């Protein structure tokens, strides 16, 4: 997992840093740090940064600090650190603290007496170490889901060393942005690519933040899909699906209007089952893209007979099968030709019911029919 704002605040030597607002955002993942030198920061950041405001190279009044916080929120920063002291920024304005709480953006105060070189060195070192661990975890998980590993036992040992617990049942979730082909048809390639990169960056950051709150498994990216594992123990799978549905809906209703679809695999209980789980999640995701369920999630376990039909890559085979097998039950000349004709058994049952209605009440045949209903 990436380091969170909360974990960075707990680093040795940084106890002087004080959280002033936005505690609900302490689980935001920190990608790197950035020291703001200009009046605005929007064009200089990419998302996931811990932004430091010193006030040294550019004067910072209340209005500018509010503007920086709003730009940071829009670009998806992890948090903001403001250096305070007698020389430049004397104190953090109360309006900024209230706004950070409203936005859920961690706002941290750093005294000028705590040297920036110490802070950035501690944070930079911790982030590099975290990235090395995360890269090893991603490598292990990617080998598992693709089946591209030289030795499963060795991979299991690596997973144990990296504290990845595969002993409990897990599900693989595959997410993909909706309408990518339409995006590139409607807009010039440069504009479409820029939007796609920004959308992926925003989704990645939000998934990392949400996923790592209660999940030790890293986020993977493969073939325009976001992949991650979810626990599936004692009803926990239902809660995870509910959480996913709410998050996907909130994302679609948000300012960025990011519409994602999700496919869920069946639970996996053995290491060698993860390549199949990837296939299941992709199959469910493709069906979700076709069927467009209102909850934006397709669960492989609930696909039923569609599992078999969707596994046929050539649609012509399904059409041929339908015509060869069901053709005798279809009347092309009818107003609704695709409504199946009555089978002889259904027709006979209907005729018996109509005949029973024509017989006088109390006749022997009626009593027999009522005692032995047609099947």
From TrEMBL:
<dbReference type="Pfam" id="PF07905">
    <property type="entry name" value="PucR"/>
</dbReference>
<protein>
    <submittedName>
        <fullName>Transcriptional regulatory protein</fullName>
    </submittedName>
</protein>
<feature type="domain" description="CdaR GGDEF-like">
    <location>
        <begin position="147"/>
        <end position="287"/>
    </location>
</feature>
<dbReference type="InterPro" id="IPR051448">
    <property type="entry name" value="CdaR-like_regulators"/>
</dbReference>
<dbReference type="InterPro" id="IPR042070">
    <property type="entry name" value="PucR_C-HTH_sf"/>
</dbReference>
<feature type="region of interest" description="Disordered">
    <location>
        <begin position="347"/>
        <end position="375"/>
    </location>
</feature>
<dbReference type="InterPro" id="IPR041522">
    <property type="entry name" value="CdaR_GGDEF"/>
</dbReference>
<dbReference type="Pfam" id="PF17853">
    <property type="entry name" value="GGDEF_2"/>
</dbReference>
<dbReference type="InterPro" id="IPR012914">
    <property type="entry name" value="PucR_dom"/>
</dbReference>
<feature type="domain" description="Purine catabolism PurC-like">
    <location>
        <begin position="7"/>
        <end position="126"/>
    </location>
</feature>
